[in-house]
Amino acid sequence: MTAAPDGLPPLAALDTARLDWRHAASGETAPHSPAFDDVYFSRHDGRAETEHVFVTGNRLAERFREWREPRPFVVGETGFGTGLNMLCAWACFDAHAAPGARLHLVSTEKFPLSREDLARALAAWPDLAERSESLVAQWPEPVAGVHRLWLDARVTLDLHLGDATERLALLDGRVDAWFLDGFAPAKNPEMWRPELFDAMAARSRPGATFATFSCAGVVKRGLAAAGFTWRKAPGFGRKREMLCGEIAAPPSDVRRRQTPWLTPPAPRPPRHVTVIGAGIAGASAAAALARRGIAVTLIDRFARAELGTTHLQGALYVKLAADTNRQSRTYLAGFLHSRRWLAWVDPRRELWRATGVLQLASSEREQSRQARFLANHPLPESVVRGLDAEAASAVAGARIDSPALDYPDAAWVRPMELCVRLAETPGITFHRGEVATLRRQDDGWMLEMRDGEAIVADQVIIAGAMESVAFAQSASLPLQPVRGQLSQLRLPPGAPELGRVVCAGGYVPPAADGMLNFGATFGPGDSDRTPRDADHQANVKELERGLPHFVAALRDAGADLSPEQLTALVGVRAASPDKTPYCGPLPDADAWREDYAVLAKDASRIPEKPGRHHAGLWISTAHGSRGMASAPLCAELLASRICDEPLPLEQPLVDHLHPGRRLIRDLIRGN
């Protein structure tokens, strides 16, 4: 496949590995790749080889014992395979690291195993069973991109699915120790290219180590050319020698030459962070930081737990563009991330249901768009598939007259209750109030409250939807209010039931607690929260347009859809002009206009000066109506950046979310 129009690798399903299971000398089976005619781990003793080559070769036990940094220790790997190397690193970490230490694993894989093959391969190591179960339970669909897994409270794994060299070139993060693995150079020469070693060097921290089983000349030459020093060490089993070494001075990152304004601020690990806004953006960010051991004060005008039962249901799904673009990539990554995140945050599924989502194609134009989308994005059918009207009707549990896109693993969520659950994460203190001003103070921030109280924090995250631009530091961000009214109907006995969330011009989830939610209206520029009968009527009309037979069955069961019988829930969303969230460090707008003024005259004259930001001030807003698909990923992105960790998204997509993107666009256009 060729690169997508946005210059990134194709957005598509990856080929999963084909295995055969040859008998080892011990009589046990071992996974073998017929495509590369090589084994995934040594038949002599795969685990002992891993521990000798990668764990001992990188001196991990010693380094874990001595690790006292606030950031996690980062292990990078080229070739995840069965995951045995990563599980052994995790076991070593548990055995030797101090209680407050954290481990971050980053691994690439072009041909991921199926979930079944992964479980079978790791069953060979019963003492790793608990760790294996955590990995298998979160195993992602084979979609190119970054997939973050929370293996336990202290250990995170980022799976970068795709070509190793491509994935490392897109990685936003630095590595302390490398596992240079993969099938042997003679079996898989495409992986062991000079570009791979260059990418490793560029993503290394000073003093980063590496270890590999291979002593092939192409490996030694490639490592040396990239700046690594190598030495031979005793190998394992029949392999007489292996290589290990380090890189003292990694090369500087040249990726910012064309976009110096997006250079991230130097990391400053905080002790206390204040988050403004306790909706899904703020609550998920607060929880992400608290899980990393940071004290968090979460501020909101409303005590969410006092709002009572709203019966509100939000849909977790995405509407992706027919032609690949960075916005669609970001939202798909967010959707897949949120699906795993929900299962991790609420494994008992008390606050969400994976019912799937149908996106109807009620017009010829939408049918054409969906057909083009499927042709351009050969994703796994477990992620999205096209259904004709008959198949769509079968999964929806109601007659549907049009084809549809089906997201089988999508879900509906109780967003208010989820925010309350997140706010209860240990380490979070909830403070009810309204922030009037933000004032820089020493190495931190003072938040002056409307009631005269003051709160001091090392760093601040603004996540207050439309209220996010109420401060002098954020006022330059273009943000638009979008009013939305949802209608709720108490269902009579015998009312029909849906099996999927159904979306068209609006959305309707399967009923919960006897209440049917449907809507919502879309009012750009409108921030009035007063319920309107006209909006109820619009919601009913839209429901009838998409699901006429379902609405007829509702009425046959005695449902009254008149406005006076409906309950209104009104919210005001915040949207950016390009419909992409703002997530990242908050730029100093005046400084950017000064530093990059030359762009207005000649966009090719790019100053070398890095962008100036308000130190320790971050933002996550403009999530619009798709916050469940974007806010949790943005929360992880912010927490990872603040804590100096590898990011859960490719660097071009991190840049796509940057709050300063509109400033540069306006400068270039002379606005």
Residue share in helix: 25-40%
Please compute the radius of gyration using only Cα atoms: 26 Å
Distance between the termini: 39 Å
At the fourth CATH level, what is the homologous superfamily of the largest domain? FAD/NAD(P)-binding domain
Shape: globular
Structure description:
- It is a single chain.
- The mean pLDDT is 93.
- Helix content is 30%, strand content 25%.
- Helix 4 (115-122) packs antiparallel against helix 5 (129-137) and helix 9 (280-291) packs parallel to helix 17 (627-642).
- With 671 residues, the protein is of the alpha/beta class.
- The protein is globular.
- It folds into 3 domains: 54-247, Vaccinia Virus protein VP39 (Rossmann fold, 3-Layer(aba) Sandwich); 260-305 and 417-479 and 577-669, FAD/NAD(P)-binding domain; 480-575, D-Amino Acid Oxidase, subunit A, domain 2 (D-Amino Acid Oxidase, Chain A, domain 2).
- The two termini are 39 Å apart.
Concise synopsis of the structure shown:
The protein is of the alpha/beta class and 671 residues long. It is built from 19 helices and 32 strands.
Which terms would index this structure?
single chain; 671 residues; alpha/beta; Rossmann fold; FAD/NAD(P)-binding domain; D-Amino Acid Oxidase, Chain A, domain 2; 3 domains; 8-stranded mixed sheet; 6-stranded mixed sheet; 19 helices
Task: Furnish the topology, listing elements before pairings.
Blueprint: E1 20-23, E2 29-33, E3 38-39, H1 46-56, H2 60-66, E4 73-78, H3 84-96, E5 103-109, H4 115-122, H5 129-137, E6 145-150, E7 155-161, H6 164-170, E8 175-179, H7 194-202, E9 204-212, H8 217-226, E10 229-234, E11 241-247, E12 272-276, H9 280-291, E13 295-300, E14 314-316, H10 326-345, E15 352-353, E16 357-360, H11 364-376, E17 385-387, H12 389-396, E18 404-407, E19 411-413, H13 415-423, E20 428-432, E21 435-441, E22 444-449, E23 454-457, E24 459-462, E25 480-490, E26 501-503, E27 507-508, E28 515-518, E29 523-524, H14 533-546, H15 548-556, E30 567-575, E31 582-587, H16 589-595, E32 613-621, H17 627-642, H18 651-657, H19 661-669
Parallel strand pairs: 4-5, 4-8, 5-7, 8-9, 12-13, 12-24, 13-20, 16-26, 24-32
Antiparallel strand pairs: 1-2, 2-3, 6-7, 9-11, 10-11, 14-19, 15-19, 16-18, 17-18, 21-22, 22-23, 25-28, 25-29, 25-30, 26-27, 31-32
Helix pairs in contact: 1-3, 2-3, 4-5, 6-7, 7-8, 9-13, 9-17, 10-17, 14-15
